[in-house]
């Protein structure tokens, strides 16, 4: 080994050790709730040192892999900083008395016990599940029907596609306030009372607005699936005497099974995370009797409940515990849904 190679190896090892040390110290300071201003620069310097150490490491056989890693590192680093590390820290903070800035003690399962004793949270969990079930059915049915219409031979199909997709381009907050005006000032002239004045009708109103917003997006995915159905298969079915209903259920639906899986997954995850329309339209208000208690959050779904717990009530540790449970529920339901849908695809 020549002197130049030895020097590069020593420099590489020094940079690697320094990078790991700086990253470890900066993360440890954050973990302990330190408010030191040099944590961020230390994290960046540590990451750069680690990268330089990998780059200068004198191994010809692994050099291409190192270069490939360097190109991927910005994306991986961003994903780790914005998703992985906050997730791990969030799980830890849910077992502490975290105030949003620091924590003083480890409280174990106290936040989770308090969460399940909170009647308003249990109610939000129940109506969120109901909201997801209703929307998985109605959004997909409406979106699929619109897709059938927009793949037919009617004139002006391009206009219909644009018109149905347009609501999805409107932000949820703006959309909520628009429909709030419609329910309180326009439809009230027909119904005699605002649909938002009572909890059951307000909950139904949220479902209607969500369908109106999201069905156009699901429609585009179904359109993409329907146009991939081979024309010669449809022609053969028509020659064999299959009518439109038979062609739909025996040919089109089985051949777009993967598209149905994608749409149900997107609808499920989006409905579970519903927040902006819920906040803008009703802000979760509504009176309801549940488990012998009078609640005023009759239309408050899970995401809004977590937000209000952490921000409005300044109870970050409890809000974080709810968020962890929310993540676990969403992950489990999504995995089950994809597994079931994939098995249905095989059967089709």
Provide keyphrases for this structure.
mainly alpha, 2 strands, flat, 348 residues
Structure report:
- The protein has 348 residues and is an all-alpha fold.
- 75% of the residues lie in helices and 2% in strands.
- A two-stranded antiparallel ribbon has the order 1-2.
- β1 and β2 (293-295) form a beta hairpin.
- The protein starts with a helix and ends with a helix.
- The model has no long low-confidence stretch (mean pLDDT 86).
**In which range does the helix fraction lie?**
over 70%
Strand content: under 5%
Q: What is the CA-atom radius of gyration, in angstroms?
A: 27 Å
Q: Whole-Å distance between the termini?
A: 63 Å
**Helical/strand content category:** mainly alpha
Provide the residue-averaged pLDDT. 86
Shape: flat
* Low-confidence runs: none
Instruction: Please provide the ordered H/E string of secondary-structure elements.
Output: HHHHHHHHHHHHHEEHH
Task: Please provide the count of β strands.
Answer: 2
Question: Helix tally?
Answer: 15
Secondary-structure map:
Blueprint: H1 3-31, H2 39-56, H3 63-93, H4 110-117, H5 119-150, H6 157-165, H7 172-186, H8 188-191, H9 199-226, H10 231-239, H11 244-255, H12 257-272, H13 276-281, E1 288-290, E2 293-295, H14 302-312, H15 316-347
Antiparallel strand pairs: 1-2
